[in-house]
Amino acid sequence: MWGLVLDSTIREKELTRKIDPEKVPRHIAIIMDGNGRWAVERGLPRQEGHRQGVETVRDIVRCAEKLGISILTLFAFSTENWQRPAWEVNYLMSLPEKYFQSELPELIRKNVQVRLIGDAARLPRKVRKAVEDGSEATRDNTGMILNFALNYGSRSEILRAVNNLIKEAAAGKVKGQVDEKTFSSYLYTAGLPDPDLLIRTSGEKRISNFLLWQLAYSELWFTNVYWPDFSKLHLMEAVHDYQMRKRRFGKL
Ligand code: V0D
């Protein structure tokens, strides 16, 4: 037990030394995958994996803030996740409120601004209320931006942007050709830089309808670790790996 604690303390020291605080990614996006599998492999109910997953969110938000990350975007619930069994969806829908009950004071203290990306209109009223209250309570914060992707799907985000553009063009509010910058301003992530780094846990190597437009030039980092086991050491490892890469944006 104390041997392991010592090992991870040493590893953290080592990673802290290796990470260049001047070159941390501005925006990290994470697909938090593997909660159910984590639980089932331990003979626990799937909810237990989700519950543990919220603890990981807390640790990773703390670590990201400490590293000086400007924007952290977490994929919490996709538009496809409604197809899960009702009891599991119901449990998941209790998590935003639970999260804010335990984390809101610390988020406020740390000047973190919480935002939602996704189709909030189609969330159960009590979930929308919890998320709105959390966003409202942190709206004037000027530190790290913490985006929760909730009822989010990237293709429908893009179609929503297209349809809003059509409407505004018909009303004469958009004229001529639409460029990339204008198009980006119609996405949920309007005004934010694209992710520099995408992390996906639990061994899947897919984008799964997450930020398709915004991830065009992002570095991708995959790990077999399940989300409940993902720790600040893994986040630091990903940031260090990112710093070792040479980003070219299609150029030489
Ligand atoms: C379960 C792992 C925080 C992924 C993380 C409704 C699956 C824990 C939130 C959250 C979930 C969402 C919005 C918000 C504040 C917190 C959350 C869901 C699932 C789905 F404003 N964790 N978390 N939401 N899990």
Summarize the structure.
The chain has about 250 residues and is of the alpha/beta class.
Description:
- The model has no long low-confidence stretch (mean pLDDT 97).
- The chain has a six-stranded parallel sheet with strand order 3-4-2-1-5-6, sandwiched between helices.
- The chain contains nine helices and six strands, in the order H-E-H-H-E-H-H-E-H-E-H-H-E-E-H.
- The protein is globular and about 65 Å long.
- It has a single domain, classed as Decaprenyl diphosphate synthase-like (Undecaprenyl pyrophosphate synthetase).
- The chain has 252 residues and is of the alpha/beta class.
- The chain has helices at 2-18, 35-41, 46-67, 86-93, 95-109, 125-138, 154-170, 180-184, 232-244, and strands at 27-31, 71-78, 113-117, 145-152, 197-200, 219-222.
- The chain binds ligand V0D.
- Residues 32, 35, 50, 53-54, 57, 76-77, 92-93, 95-96, 99, 114, 116, 131, 134, 148, 150, 227 line the site of ligand V0D.
- Ligand V0D is lined by residues 32, 35, 50, 53-54, 57, 76-77, 92-93, 95-96, 99, 114, 116, 131, 134, 148, 150, 227.
Keywords:
252 residues; alpha/beta; Undecaprenyl pyrophosphate synthetase; 9 helices; 13% strand; binds ligand V0D
- Class computed from helices, strands and strand pairing: alpha/beta
Overall structural domain count: 1
Helix content: 40-55%
Q: From the 3D coordinates, which CATH architecture would you assign? A: 3-Layer(aba) Sandwich
Biggest sheet: strands, sense, closure? 6 strands, parallel
Rg from C-alpha positions? Answer: 19 Å
Please report the number of helical segments: 9
Share in β-strands: 5-15%
Shape: globular
Average predicted confidence as pLDDT: 97
Task: Give the termini separation.
Answer: 48 Å
Q: Give me the CATH superfamily.
A: Decaprenyl diphosphate synthase-like
- Strand arrangement within the widest β-sheet reads 3-4-2-1-5-6
Small molecules bound: ligand V0D
